[in-house]
Design brief:
The protein has 259 residues and is α+β, with helices and mostly antiparallel strands. The chain is built from 7 helices and 8 strands, in the order E-H-E-E-E-E-H-E-E-E-H-H-H-H-H. The protein has one domain. Strands 2-3-4-5-1-6-8-7 form an 8-stranded mixed β-sheet, with helices on both faces.
Length: 259
């Protein structure tokens, strides 16, 4: 039997507490960061506070209908949603990983939840990678201008916004670092642990996360340089203002006190 997992990044964040109180279905697993529901046999729903919703066994119409239900609990919902799909082939003789799919003998609820979690982590990494690349492109435009003209075309407000975007993305990633950790259940269950390791390799989660970290490090290094250059430019401007004021004062003295 084929089961399809689909995960979407739909917003900056989701109010998990408010959604849980409103959604009238018993939660199978939940905490302050995520909610996992078994809607019916072979039909599951996973909601994460960092703005991701994951479906297993949902039709396209059902996912669209649920978006309408959860939208009031979303902060800054997206018009264009990042998504990823993953197939689960059941009744396989052994666990086998393929391109965008896993073959598994007879998955239980914990294994299905683990698969949905890894698919959702992959979507989160796609989102953070997209945001990091946008910052890198902006950074490159400033460094290219610096190379050509020797100047940074960036005022104080523009620099502050650039710093704000960088720090905001970094803080969001740090706040959600837990999503890239293995669930506690994998520490106590050898089969779950093997499945988790295989899925992380399939999605290349660790390498993709390191790429994002390296990108943010480059942005931070350039950000510090831009800040220093702007401070030096402002200091130089202030020095010239002081020199001009002194010169004006000297001229006034000569004008009002001629020999």
């Amino acid at each position: 039997m084929n089961l399809k997992v689909t995960s979407f990044q739909i917003a900056d964040s989701i109010d998990i507490k408010a959604f849980r109180a409103s959604f009238r279905i018993a939660v199978s697993y939940g905490d302050t960061d995520e909610l996992f529901y078994q809607i019916e046999k072979d039909k599951y729903l996973y909601v994460f506070k960092y703005g991701i919703v994951c479906y297993l066994g949902y039709s396209e119409e059902e996912t669209g209908a649920f978006f309408q239900i959860i939208e009031p609990f979303c902060k800054n919902p997206y018009d264009h949603r990042l998504s990823d799909e993953f197939d689960i082939e059941t009744e396989a003789p052994a666990i086998n990983y393929g391109y965008n799919k896993v073959e598994i003998p007879s998955p239980n609820t914990e294994e299905l939840r683990l698969i949905m979690l890894n698919v959702s982590q992959s979507v989160a990494l796609d989102y953070y990678n997209q945001q990091t690349n946008a910052l890198l492109e902006e950074t490159n435009s400033y460094t290219q201008l610096l190379e050509k003209t020797g100047k940074i075309n960036m005022g104080g407000i523009r620099l502050k916004r650039y710093i704000g975007r960088t720090l905001n993305l970094k803080n969001r990633i740090l706040a959600n670092l837990y999503i890239f950790d293995s669930p506690e259940e994998t520490w106590e269950n050898e089969n779950l642990n093997k499945l988790d390791i295989g899925l992380k390799k399939t999605f290349d989660l660790q390498a993709r996360f390191r790429t994002i970290q390296e990108g943010l490090s480059i942005v931070k290094e350039n950000m510090e340089l831009f800040k220093d250059l702007l401070q030096n430019r402002n200091s130089l401007t202030l020095e010239w203002v002081v020199i001009i004021l002194i010169l004006v004062e000297v001229i006034n003295i000569f004008v009002h006190n001629p020999k």
